[in-house]
C-alpha cells in the first residue's frame, strides 16, 4: 500500500504508467505524463494560501517591466510548503536519475498572465538536462520552438499532468506560456530543479 495515498487524498503515479515520450529532434525530447498527480486541486488551493508569492520586475531590451505572473522559489526542497512536493521530487529523482533538490513555482492568476520565450539556462547549464514541470489548476498552452528558427509545437497539460523536457531541449529550444482568454482560471506550474544540472558539466 502507498502510505502517502493512505493518509492523504493526494497521490502519485510512481510507475509513470501513462508516460508518453516524443522526440522533437534528434537529441531533444518531451515526455507527457497525464494524471501523474491525483488530488492536484486540493494542493493548488493550499499553495495559493501558503506560498509567499511575489511579482518581480525584469529588464529586457533596455526596458524594465513587471512580469505578468507571480513566482516563488524554495532553494531546498525540504522546505517546500507541502509534503506532496517533497514526495514528488523524490519520485522524480528516482525515476529520471537526477537529484531534484529545489523548486521554482509560477502562479498564473488568469489568462492575461504569461511568460515569454526563454530557456531555463540558470537551472540547466549542461548540454543535456531533464526538467520536469507539474501543472496544477487550469490548463494552459505550453509552446516550444527551435532556437535556430522554425515552427512551434504545442501542448496543453491539465491539472495533475507532468511535462518533462529532456535531452538538449534547454540548449536548442525555447518555451513559453502565451497569453490566453482572460477568463482562464488559476494555474500553478511547479518546476523541479537540480543543483547538479545548474553546474556546468
Number of strands: 15
CATH topology: Jelly Rolls
Query: Can you tell me the overall shape?
Result: globular
Strand content: 35-45%
Q: Tell me the helix content.
A: 10-25%
**H/E series:** HEEEEHEEEHEEEEEEHEE
What average pLDDT do the residues reach?
93
Outline the low-pLDDT stretches.
Answer: 1-8
The CATH level-2 architecture is identified as Sandwich
What does this structure look like?
This protein has helices spanning 3-7, 40-50, 83-96, 169-172, and strands at residues 11-12, 20-23, 28-33, 37-38, 57-60, 63-66, 70-74, 102-108, 115-118, 131-137, 142-146, 153-155, 162-167, 173-177, 187-193. The chain has 201 residues and is of the alpha+beta class. The termini are far apart.
Secondary-structure topology with pairs:
Layout: H1 3-7, E1 11-12, E2 20-23, E3 28-33, E4 37-38, H2 40-50, E5 57-60, E6 63-66, E7 70-74, H3 83-96, E8 102-108, E9 115-118, E10 131-137, E11 142-146, E12 153-155, E13 162-167, H4 169-172, E14 173-177, E15 187-193
Antiparallel strand pairs: 1-4, 2-3, 3-13, 5-6, 7-8, 8-15, 9-14, 10-13, 10-15, 11-12, 11-14
Amino acid at each position: 500500500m502507498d502510505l502517502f495515498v493512505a493518509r492523504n487524498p493526494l497521490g502519485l503515479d510512481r510507475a509513470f504508467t501513462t508516460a508518453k515520450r516524443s522526440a522533437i529532434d534528434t537529441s531533444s525530447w518531451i515526455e507527457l505524463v497525464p494524471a501523474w498527480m491525483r488530488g492536484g486541486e486540493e494542493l493548488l488551493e493550499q499553495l495559493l494560501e501558503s506560498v509567499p508569492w511575489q511579482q518581480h520586475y525584469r529588464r529586457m531590451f533596455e526596458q524594465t517591466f513587471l512580469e505578468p505572473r507571480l513566482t516563488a522559489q524554495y532553494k531546498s526542497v525540504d522546505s517546500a510548503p507541502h509534503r506532496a512536493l517533497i514526495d514528488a521530487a523524490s519520485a522524480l529523482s528516482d525515476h529520471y536519475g537526477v537529484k531534484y533538490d529545489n523548486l521554482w513555482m509560477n502562479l498564473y492568476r488568469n489568462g492575461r498572465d504569461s511568460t515569454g520565450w526563454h530557456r531555463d539556462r540558470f537551472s540547466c547549464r549542461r548540454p543535456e538536462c531533464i526538467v520536469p514541470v507539474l501543472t496544477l489548476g487550469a490548463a494552459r498552452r505550453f509552446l516550444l520552438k527551435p532556437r535556430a528558427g522554425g515552427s512551434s509545437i504545442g501542448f496543453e497539460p491539465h491539472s495533475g499532468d507532468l511535462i518533462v523536457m529532456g535531452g538538449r531541449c534547454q540548449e536548442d529550444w525555447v518555451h513559453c506560456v502565451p497569453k490566453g482568454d482572460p477568463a482562464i482560471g488559476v494555474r500553478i506550474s511547479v518546476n523541479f530543479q537540480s543543483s547538479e544540472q545548474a553546474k556546468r558539466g
